[in-house]
């Protein structure tokens, strides 16, 4: 072991350890070595993590760290690391901090001067994205849609204009409702439905939103799902916006931007951009209204 590694071992530190999302063989050698070497493992579900520990003969003590204790338990864990303990954080599956309470512990570590490192590995987001056949150059991750009806409607409305590929998580008992809401809000989009990724009954379906709604009306959803949704066509979005401006009078268009806080000059500049003409044209047309 070189001097750098020996120096790190003398200080408290947080290790974010990615664990398998299904197939236990997907764990990395580096994660296995770290889990055996740290002083404590903070796990989202200790019962679930013990399966992994037993499989790879890991005897490091476990403690719980989950959504319902993430604030107060993070303070306790940070205090332990300040005292010199090295702690590994694992989630039920995948990479800690992605749609789980790990982000709070990381935040508190940085606020307290505790070094943090991430050991890369399995992630359902990336696995589904690479399987989807969708554009991967630009994408966003929505995790689970909000359960609150108002927040859910707001997210769905925002997604109407999203041009990036979007990845969602969904549980089987909510899948039908989510697919129906996505179709109602977004219309006919390409969709890749990934089920039980890396597990024995892994399934990937490249279909459309309407087809997915029909498919799951006839079949009971089973297992954990990741949905990869096609982004809105930029040209289609531009055409829709152009039609919207065409339906407004110039005065209404001007009032729209002034209500957003733009002065008349900046409002006319934006109007010209919307209508693909010059600001002089907008000015002259307003005078003649």
Walk me through what this model shows.
With 289 residues, the chain is of the alpha/beta class. The protein has three domains: 3-122, 3-Layer(aba) Sandwich (Cobalt-precorrin-4 Transmethylase, domain 1); 125-231, Methyltransferase, Cobalt-precorrin-4 Transmethylase, Domain 2, CATH 3.30.950; 235-288, no CATH class. 47% of the residues lie in helices and 17% in strands. It contains 13 helices and ten strands. Strands 3-2-4-1-5 form a five-stranded parallel sheet, with helices on both faces. The protein has a five-stranded mixed sheet with strand order 6-7-10-8-9. A hairpin with a 7-residue loop joins strand 8 and strand 9 (203-208). Helix 4 crosses helix 5 (102-111), helix 11 (250-259) packs across helix 12 and helix 12 crosses helix 13 (279-288). It is globular and about 80 Å long. It starts with a helix and ends with a helix. Mean pLDDT is 89; it is low at 1-9.
Question: Short description, anyone?
Answer:
By secondary structure, the protein is of the alpha/beta class. It is 47% helix and 17% strand.
């Amino acid at each position: 072991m070189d001097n750098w590694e020996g120096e790190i071992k003398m200080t408290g530190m947080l290790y974010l350890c990615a664990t398998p999302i299904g197939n236990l063989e997907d764990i990395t050698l580096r994660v296995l070595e770290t889990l055996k070497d740290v002083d404590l493992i903070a796990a989202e579900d200790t019962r679930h993590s013990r399966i992994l520990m037993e499989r790879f003969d890991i005897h490091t003590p476990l403690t719980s760290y989950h959504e319902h204790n993430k604030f107060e338990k993070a303070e306790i864990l940070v205090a332990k690391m300040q005292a010199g303990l090295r702690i590994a954080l694992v989630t039920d599956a995948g990479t800690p901090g992605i749609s789980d309470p790990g982000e709070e512990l990381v935040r508190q570590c940085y606020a307290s001067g505790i070094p943090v490192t991430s050991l890369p590995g399995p992630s359902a987001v990336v696995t589904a994205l690479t399987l989807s056949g969708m554009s991967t150059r630009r994408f966003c991750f929505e995790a689970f849609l909000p359960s609150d009806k108002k927040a859910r409607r707001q997210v769905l409305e925002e997604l109407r204009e999203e041009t990036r590929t979007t990845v969602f998580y969904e549980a089987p008992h909510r899948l039908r409702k989510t697919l129906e809401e996505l179709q109602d809000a977004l219309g006919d989009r390409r969709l890749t439905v990934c089920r039980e990724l890396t597990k024995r009954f892994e399934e990937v379906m490249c279909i459309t939103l309407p087809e997915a709604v029909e498919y799951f009306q006839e079949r009971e959803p089973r297992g954990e799902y990741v949905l990869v949704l096609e982004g809105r066509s930029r040209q289609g979005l531009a055409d829709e916006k152009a039609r919207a401006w065409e339906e407004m009078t110039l005065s209404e268009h001007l009032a729209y931007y002034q209500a957003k806080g733009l002065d008349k000059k900046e409002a006319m500049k934006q109007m010209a951009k919307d209508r693909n003409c010059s600001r002089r044209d907008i000015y002259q047309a307003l005078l003649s209204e």
